[in-house]
Design a protein that fits this description.
alpha/beta, Amidase signature (AS) enzymes, 11-stranded mixed beta sheet, two-stranded antiparallel sheet, 13 strands, about 40% helix, globular, binds glutamine
C-alpha cells in the first residue's frame, strides 16, 4: 500500500521516523521515478531538507499539526518564493516569484515539506500534460498513456508515491481528469473556498486550487488547511459547515450512456450499486444545457485566458526577446512569439476574437447570460430533486499519448462531466473506483451544491468503501 497522510503523520508523531528521513526517501524516489514519468519539473533538496528539519523540531517540541513533516508537491503554477514557478512555459522558465501563494504559506505554517514543483500543460491549458516547455508527463500505470492534465504531474506524483499529496488547479477539470486517469482522489472546491492569491491565473472566474491525494480523508485534511478567506483574494470566503443525512443522488443516465465507453460504464454500474448499498435514493436528472457546456467554456474561459495572458509582455518579469525591435509593440510581439507555445497562441487569438468589436455582444455577453441561466437551471431543476450528482469522471480511461481526436469538440470530451462544476462554481470530487480491461484506473465523480464541500467529502468517503481500484506499489 502506498503511504497515506494519516499513517505517516502517526509515525512521525510517534517518532518512529523523522521528517528528514522521510523527505530523503522521497527525494531519492523522485530521482528514480522521474526518468520514467517526468512528474516533477523542479526539485531543490536543500529547501526541502531545511523544511523537514524545521518540522522535526516542531514535532520534538510537541506541537505538530497533521501535515507537519509530510512531504508534498505543488503544481508549477502555484507561486513559491523558494523555488521557481514556471507554469511550464518558456515565458516563465527562469521565474522565481517575489511572494508565495496563500495556499503554500498556509501549508508551511502547518509544517509541510515541499518536495518540488510538478509538471503541467503550459499555463494549465490542456488535458494531457504533453505540451509543457519541460516535456511530457507519463501515466505511472502505463508510460505509453497520458497522465491527463493539466495537473498531470501532481496526479502522477501522488499515484506513483513520489509525494504524499499535491495541490493542483482546476479551471475545466484539470484536477479531476488527471486524478481519475492516474487513480487518485482529486477535489475541486466551491469557487472561492480556497484563495487564488499566487495561483498563475488562467480563467479567473473558473480557477480553483484543490488537493490531489491518495484517499478522500487525506484530501479533506489538506482542504481544511488551505481553505478560507484571504485579504489578498476578494473572492475567497469561509465556507459554512455542512452535512446531509440520507442524501439523494442525481444521475443523468442518458448522457452518460451516450458518452462513456464500455469499461467506464461497467465501473459506473458499480457506483450505482454502491448507492443501493449505502441506502441512498437515486433520481434521474437532466440539464437542458448539456450540449452547451463546451461552447460556454470556449467563449468565456478563453476570453478570460486571453485577458490573463496580456500581462506577459517581457517587461518587468519573465522572458524577453533578445532580437532587435523597432518599438514597444514590436518588442512585445517578438517576446510572445518566441516564448508562448502553440496552444497558448491559439487560445489568445480565439479569446481576443470573442472580445473584439461586435463579437463582444454576439458571443461574450450572450455566453455570460447563458452561464447565468445554466446556474439557475441547476438550482431550480436539478438541486431541487437531488443533493449530489454522480457521474463517471471521464468518458474513458487514460488514452495513449499518440491518440488523435478527430475534432476540437471531440478533444474536449474528456472534460465534459467536469465542466459544469467550473461553470457553476460547485464543489466536485473524483474517487478511483475500478480498473479498465487494460488495467487503467477509472474514477467516479460526485458534485454538490455550492458550499456543500464538507457534506460532499462525507458522501465520497462512503462511496470509497466500495471502490475496486488497485493502487500502484512502486518501491
Ligand atoms: N482541459 C481544459 C482546458 O484545456 C481545462 C484546463 C484546466 O482545467 N486548467 O482548458
Amino acid at each position: 500500500m502506498p503511504h497515506s497522510l494519516i499513517n505517516l503523520a502517526t509515525q512521525l508523531q510517534r517518532k518512529e521516523i523523522s521528517s528528514v528521513e522521510l523527505t530523503t526517501e522521497y527525494l531519492n524516489k523522485i530521482k528514480k521515478q522521474n526518468k520514467k514519468t517526468n512528474s516533477y519539473i523542479f526539485t531543490n533538496e536543500e529547501v526541502s531538507l531545511n523544511q523537514a528539519k524545521k518540522a522535526d523540531e516542531i514535532i520534538k517540541k510537541g506541537s505538530p499539526s497533521v501535515l507537519t513533516g509530510i512531504p508534498m508537491s505543488l503544481k508549477d503554477n502555484i507561486m513559491t518564493i523558494d523555488m521557481p514557478t514556471t507554469a511550464a512555459s518558456k515565458m516563465l522558465a527562469k521565474y522565481i516569484p517575489s511572494y508565495s501563494a496563500t495556499v503554500y504559506t498556509k501549508l508551511l505554517n502547518n509544517g509541510a515539506v515541499l518536495l518540488g514543483k510538478t509538471n503541467l500543460d503550459e499555463f494549465a491549458m490542456g488535458s494531457s500534460t504533453l505540451n509543457g516547455y519541460f516535456g511530457e508527463t507519463s501515466n505511472p500505470y502505463d508510460t505509453d498513456k497520458i497522465a491527463g492534465g493539466s495537473s498531470g504531474g501532481s496526479a502522477a506524483s501522488v499515484a506513483e508515491d513520489t509525494s504524499i499529496y499535491s495541490l493542483g488547479s482546476d479551471t475545466g477539470g484539470s484536477i479531476r481528469q488527471p486524478a481519475s486517469y492516474c487513480g487518485v482522489v482529486g477535489f475541486k472546491p466551491t469557487y472561492g473556498a480556497v484563495s487564488r492569491n499566487g495561483l498563475i491565473a488562467l480563467a479567473s472566474s473558473f480557477d480553483q486550487i484543490g488537493p490531489i491525494a491518495k484517499n478522500v480523508e487525506d484530501a479533506r485534511i489538506v482542504f481544511n488547511v488551505i481553505k478560507g478567506k484571504d485579504e489578498f483574494d476578494m473572492t475567497a470566503f469561509e465556507i459554512p459547515r455542512t452535512t446531509r443525512q440520507n442524501p439523494v443522488i442525481g444521475i443523468d443516465e442518458d448522457s452518460i450512456q451516450k458518452i462513456a465507453d464500455k469499461d467506464t460504464l461497467k465501473v459506473f454500474e458499480k457506483a450505482i450499486n454502491a448507492c443501493k448499498k449505502l441506502g441512498y435514493k437515486t433520481v434521474k436528472i437532466n440539464s437542458k444545457y448539456d450540449d452547451l457546456y463546451i461552447k460556454l467554456y470556449f467563449v468565456l474561459a478563453y476570453a478570460e485566458m486571453a485577458s490573463n495572458m496580456g500581462r506577459y509582455t517581457g517587461i518587468g518579469f519573465g522572458y524577453h526577446t533578445k532580437s532587435s525591435y523597432i518599438d514597444t509593440d514590436d518588442f512585445i510581439r517578438k517576446t510572445r512569439s518566441e516564448a508562448f507555445g502553440d496552444d497558448v497562441k491559439t487560445r489568445v487569438m480565439f479569446g481576443n476574437y470573442m472580445l473584439s468589436g461586435d463579437n463582444m455582444k454576439k458571443y461574450y455577453y450572450k455566453a455570460l447570460k447563458i452561464r447565468h441561466d445554466l446556474i439557475e437551471d441547476y438550482y431550480l431543476n436539478i438541486f431541487n430533486k437531488c443533493d449530489f450528482i454522480l457521474s463517471p469522471t471521464t468518458p474513458t480511461a487514460a488514452p495513449r499519448k499518440d491518440h488523435k481526436y478527430s475534432s476540437v469538440e471531440e478533444g474536449s470530451l474528456p472534460n465534459i462531466f467536469a465542466l459544469p462544476a467550473n461553470l457553476i462554481g460547485l464543489p466536485s470530487i473524483t474517487i478511483p473506483f475500478g480498473m479498465s480491461s487494460e488495467n487503467m484506473p477509472i474514477g467516479i465523480m460526485l458534485s454538490g451544491k455550492k458550499n456543500f464541500d464538507n457534506a460532499l467529502f462525507t458522501v465520497a468517503k462512503n462511496f470509497e468503501q466500495y471502490s475496486e481500484h488497485k493502487s500502484l506499489d512502486i518501491k
